Amino acid sequence: MLSNFQSWIRYSFSGYLSLISSSIIYFLYLSSIHSTNITHNTPYFTNIALSLFNITTFTTMLTTELQHKIDFKTKPLGALGHLEHLAHKIGMVQNTTSPQLSNPHMVVFAADHGIAKAGVSAYPQEVTYQMVMNFLGGGAAINVFCRQHGINIKIVDAGVSFDFPEGLDLIDKKVRKSSRNILDEPAMTSEEYQQALQNGSSVVAEIAKTGCNIIGFGEMGIGNTSASSLMMSKLFDLPVVSCIGRGTGLNDDQLQNKINILSSAIEKYPDIRTPDEIAQTLGGLEIAQMIGAMEEAFRQNMLIMVDGFIATVAITTAWKKNPEILKNCIFCHVSDENAHLQLLELLGQKALLNLNLRLGEGTGCALAYPLIQSAVNFLNEMSSFEDAHVSNKE
């Protein structure tokens, strides 16, 4: 029978091998500095090298300790499946073997799209502001699920084509009333886009002050699946038709009309290349603010719950600028929107849920949150073989 002690030695040994590798990397790093005109005795560069060594060493030790803690719970190895990977990820983000979820938040960004007037959605544009009022009244699906799971919800007017009355519990970050019609001109000017990024960032910065360390993002905006399809096409240089779905429920004729309109739209902008150019030209104000919000959440080292197709396009844009952001992301569900699974595969990600949702609002995040909490709870509360006096496998 393999004793717990023998197993511990096995895991510890693998950790020490990693430490040896880190030391070799450190030596090579110092050697490369010494070969330049600046010697490794220069304090500034020595401090950088030592910092890199310490970070690598700490990371190696933490990932080994987390895996050991997960593997020695009272269960067969890997028996909790994706929850084990999730627990490990959360521990690595929070730099601890005993992570906690604090003051969870959901932020729903709302804005209108100029291209909606071309008939790319099954619903009229005024549904955007009507749904915002529904959010504020607590009657939407996202409200129900957030209440159920104790998630704080914030609604942001990023660019709704409506004058909301004063006194509402609405965060006013309106850059302009609706993005422009991309069939005629870019969705936003450079200044408007930068303001949208900053607005999204400021919302999360304020939430971070409350001690929140896990946050999800939802959206509301008639026409935003069209904007997201165009962005995905440009971000990965894919045929636009492969990125288009039924959105809010188009029939076959409406879907073909959407394909024709978006094919014409993307042909107008052959030279846009960078993630920011793509988002500014083809995106929407709520998407832009979501990008800024996600980037700020990463700076705050929050766990980022990613919802459906539109939110995944937003995080993809941020990822194109900084690939490290995916370390903090939890992809909550794969939606029924045609291109979402393809997009997740391009990012190398697997979603927690597949419920054929296509609602948006952040609903997938709210539904997945209990699973995320379960991953944390089993890591912190489930007995180990030694604690429970249960024999491990032979």
UniProtKB/TrEMBL annotation:
Enzymatic reactions: 5,6-dimethylbenzimidazole + nicotinate beta-D-ribonucleotide = alpha-ribazole 5'-phosphate + nicotinate + H(+)
InterPro entries: Nict_dMeBzImd_PRibTrfase (IPR003200), Nict_dMeBzImd_PRibTrfase_bact (IPR017846), Nict_dMeBzImd_PRibTrfase_N (IPR023195), Nict_dMeBzImd_PRibTrfase_sf (IPR036087)
PANTHER family according to UniProt: NICOTINATE-NUCLEOTIDE--DIMETHYLBENZIMIDAZOLE PHOSPHORIBOSYLTRANSFERASE
Location of the active site: 361 (proton acceptor)
Keywords (A to Z) from UniProt: Cobalamin biosynthesis, Glycosyltransferase, Membrane, Transferase, Transmembrane, Transmembrane helix
Name of the gene this protein is made from: cobT
Enzyme Commission (EC) number: 2.4.2.21
Native source organism of the sequence: Chryseobacterium contaminans
Protein name according to UniProt: Nicotinate-nucleotide--dimethylbenzimidazole phosphoribosyltransferase
Record-level Gene Ontology MF annotations: nicotinate-nucleotide-dimethylbenzimidazole phosphoribosyltransferase activity
Main function: Catalyzes the synthesis of alpha-ribazole-5'-phosphate from nicotinate mononucleotide (NAMN) and 5,6-dimethylbenzimidazole (DMB).
Keyword Transmembrane helix assigned: yes
Family: Belongs to the CobT family.
Transmembrane portions of the chain: 12-32, 44-63
Single biological process term from Gene Ontology: cobalamin biosynthetic process
Pathway: Nucleoside biosynthesis; alpha-ribazole biosynthesis; alpha-ribazole from 5,6-dimethylbenzimidazole: step 1/2
Pfam families in the cross-refs: DBI_PRT (PF02277)
